[in-house]
Hints:
CATH architecture of the largest domain in chain A: 2-Layer Sandwich
Oligomer: homotetramer
Strand order of the largest sheet of chain A: 2-3-4-8-5
Strand content of chain A: 15-25%
Number of domains of chain A: 3
Largest sheet of chain A: 5 strands, antiparallel
Distance between the termini of chain A: 43 Å
Structural class of chain A: alpha+beta
Number of helices of chain A: 12
Largest interface: A-D, 53 and 52 residues
Amino acid sequence: MPITxxxxxxxxxxxxxxxxxxxxxxxxxxxxxYTAHQVLDHGFVRVIDYMGDDAxxxxxxxxxxxxxxxxxxxDEGLIRYLMRHWHSTxxxxxxxxxxxxxxxxxxxxxxxxxxxNVNEYSARYSILDREFYIPATEHLNKQSVINNQGRGDALSxxxxxxxxxxxxxxxxxxxxxxxxxxxxDANGGIALARELARMNLxxxxxTQWYWKVDLHNLFHFLRLRADxxxxxxxxxxxxxxxxxxxxxxxxxxxxxxxxxLGGAQLSQPAVDALRKMLKGxxxxxxDVGMSAREWREFMEVIG
Amino acid sequence: MPITxxxxxxxxxxxxxxxxxxxxxxxxxxxxxYTAHQVLDHGFVRVIDYMGDDAxxxxxxxxxxxxxxxxxxxDEGLIRYLMRHWHSTxxxxxxxxxxxxxxxxxxxxxxxxxxxNVNEYSARYSILDREFYIPATEHLNKQSVINNQGRGDALSxxxxxxxxxxxxxxxxxxxxxxxxxxxxDANGGIALARELARMNLxxxxxTQWYWKVDLHNLFHFLRLRADxxxxxxxxxxxxxxxxxxxxxxxxxxxxxxxxxLGGAQLSQPAVDALRKMLKGxxxxxxDVGMSAREWREFMEVIG
Amino acid sequence: MPITxxxxxxxxxxxxxxxxxxxxxxxxxxxxxYTAHQVLDHGFVRVIDYMGDDAxxxxxxxxxxxxxxxxxxxDEGLIRYLMRHWHSTxxxxxxxxxxxxxxxxxxxxxxxxxxxNVNEYSARYSILDREFYIPATEHLNKQSVINNQGRGDALSxxxxxxxxxxxxxxxxxxxxxxxxxxxxDANGGIALARELARMNLxxxxxTQWYWKVDLHNLFHFLRLRADxxxxxxxxxxxxxxxxxxxxxxxxxxxxxxxxxLGGAQLSQPAVDALRKMLKGxxxxxxDVGMSAREWREFMEVIG
Amino acid sequence: MPITxxxxxxxxxxxxxxxxxxxxxxxxxxxxxYTAHQVLDHGFVRVIDYMGDDAxxxxxxxxxxxxxxxxxxxDEGLIRYLMRHWHSTxxxxxxxxxxxxxxxxxxxxxxxxxxxNVNEYSARYSILDREFYIPATEHLNKQSVINNQGRGDALSxxxxxxxxxxxxxxxxxxxxxxxxxxxxDANGGIALARELARMNLxxxxxTQWYWKVDLHNLFHFLRLRADxxxxxxxxxxxxxxxxxxxxxxxxxxxxxxxxxLGGAQLSQPAVDALRKMLKGxxxxxxDVGMSAREWREFMEVIG
Lengths: 303, 303, 303, 303
């Protein structure tokens, strides 16, 4: 269980409180505040704070005086225009702060997105909990034979079983030894410095952090991590965050979905090929100077 | 006047509205929301939005579950500790969004602080107002003969008068010609593209922008720009923002004041010199390998 | 003339020197080093230093031990793959440092690209030269009636003449007064602090800076600023830099040209429309939920 | 051994090559290029590339035309002035690219420095080597009872032995199981996707990356990580890099040593206390409003 009863009580208490503010309020986001949305077996995402809404994007784009007084339709049109033409600065005017619990190997991918603010639980100071990510059987796959960094066929039942046994046994042993190393001498432990003892812990242990990011950079993160090529274990976090963002800034999220998540980036040779095709001409990869791989990716786009 | 009656009515309208939120509210900041604090002759700073408060800093530092449940004294002690030891990430968990109106030459200094989000009024799209910074007489000074980038003695009354006449006349003429260039042909103008016409405008014309920044980077900005060596025309903006921050996050601001704005950075040779002095020894610049300039700066620190 | 004979002699002297290094050398870039490529009437771009070449990109992508020992064809294929799939970090492993002289209104657009290092000539310390950008007649256009931030038809000859007279006269007068203000009292000047006097100078005066950026962020800059929608006066700088980059990292530049500068970003509705069209179906904007503007932009892509 | 004979031959080959360049060459750095400086039991730091030297810092500060023609003494004085007064942009004009091999728990601290470019060896694509950090006995310490994140007394010989046995056994078992999981079925393995198998590996396994950073941000990294409070395992990397930088940009490094690594930051109350002390007055923590902890830290500074 990712949330203890005490923590849940704490969250419920926070959710029960409310105060009056002159700031812009996004009703769709208020409902999510503090709620821990479960991800994987012990992880979660919860919104701690946010700044701005759809109108804050257009307000900044107009450097206007008001909260965004133009008609709603205009706001949506402007947001779509900004997204389509890569005018990113107005999207930076919204900000979100999340509390995330996630396995260390996921955290290591996540942190590569540098334009964000992070405070991670420190295993130099504090003791990590005995919580490890153990995949569900249906997410155990063989190494892909096509894609060097992807997953291929499902494992056999026997092999799945072997993997789970390994992960569980090694996690348990590593944690037992971690405990022995940090335990006080008085209790038969070694009282080893925590900053040293942690090195025995495997990458499927859970950590947690506060992560704060602006909407533009969040979209960049989501485009890469909610993508079908992203590793499943980070994609589920991105998917969960997508739902939150859709409730927070619905126009911006829809534009993001249409122009970034969906849609396609075509190369100049691909555009050339397309124009010929639409005129009814036959085109080959050679005609437009595309490699076999590029051509295959192009074919996937045009269905 | 920086604010027209219509704009003031708009601001008053915004200030009159309030909504309920589950987010952290900083009462000291709520009172400032939207209010335009005048700076220089036509400029202003006003808070559009903010995220977090003092407790949000310690909450992130603790990666805790609550809004910051420890005793108040602990919060202040922790904030001072974080500031003293350059633990900057918890301060990044607070964010502020300002609407600033400022002369272009001030904007050019300001924008050098890169870790912030900015949307500036675009003179490619829109027409700039006829508003120029004309210094008050008491802020007209000669070039310093000591410091290459500072101000020295006050100008004579006659010279002050000459400067003001130049600035006013050149601003007026430049703007008249700007208007002529962008005015429609039908009205005797040239209908020149705005992106071209703007090049005729001098650096004391006012622009405006939305500027969003986290508290750590804001402190960095304030340390450099609220400093006595900063140019007066940007320092007055920094000073105004300091007051806002003091009301928003009082513990953090006090720590900033004690450890960054005030206080001093001593070099290793300066520390060596100090230790000898405290033992009652005579020390010279040569003894500790300091240049005349370093020694002078050191003497200023120790009074 | 942007370069004085003394400066040219200095540049020639630098170009004549060479030293031995163990670092990667990009022969195509060595030929450009220090040479000032003229841009606009008084501006220039010159390469001061660079780090890396095409092989450095693939080396980082492989975190390999060698300088890039794989066959050349592999390098190009890998670079194109990285570009196509937005794997940006390997491109960040190349770096370039430029010395640029440019009008202030261009510098103000340029500086909005934040992920770069900049040292600008300081008019607080130093005196700016009497050099102003005066557009060539063929670059004087009316405000576009279609695009709020673009240029439309050419001006009449008479109007062009009026604009040039205004720009020249106002620049000259502003600079004369700037000189008077900073000139020593002994010479009839006012000896006003330089940081104040500069505010009288219009945005077409030239400034200069050192600008250092990694290849990924440079490509981002070039995509936006070498675009047909960018203002002409910054586009000519971007175009000049494109030529330098093409000689420096030819594979990466070609991939950038094919996938970023050229090519197109299609929305999900546009992809849907395209698939139908390729099947020979009739499609309208309404069918796929595109606005008139989106449809027009889509039609431009597919020719 | 961190470097295989084949890799060493490769490095030697690279070192044997040299080419002619017009760029600035830093002789002190050329000697280090490509050489792997060993750190910890299997790690290393080696310089892959660099840009600039001491003169490049002052050149940017002056936005001059030459490589830095002023007298050497001036250069050093200017560099010290820039460092003392936090003028950071000229230091950003130098850049370094390192290849680093380091334990994962060290990498996790390191990556928190966001203003840098990184390409890490990917365990989604590739198989990690069987190389684990096993501390030397003299670096095994108890948890500090004073500092929550520090090390205290040395372990007893028996306890050291226990720790090392745990770390070795758990590493070996984890790696054996990792191998089993990724091994082909044909060889009795499971052929599990690499991106999944890696989660079984503990934080003392080695990874490697290319890390590129400008000198200003490198100094910031070194100030925090070469500090006595930094964890030993990252400090040894910082110490090694300090030596490289001292050879690369000797003036800048000396200024960094005097003003950042050494020296002290005093708060305003501390400066007040100091002034009184120098006048011979008795001062207590209470007199200047310092906490017991602040006072203790202050006493350490003044010896």
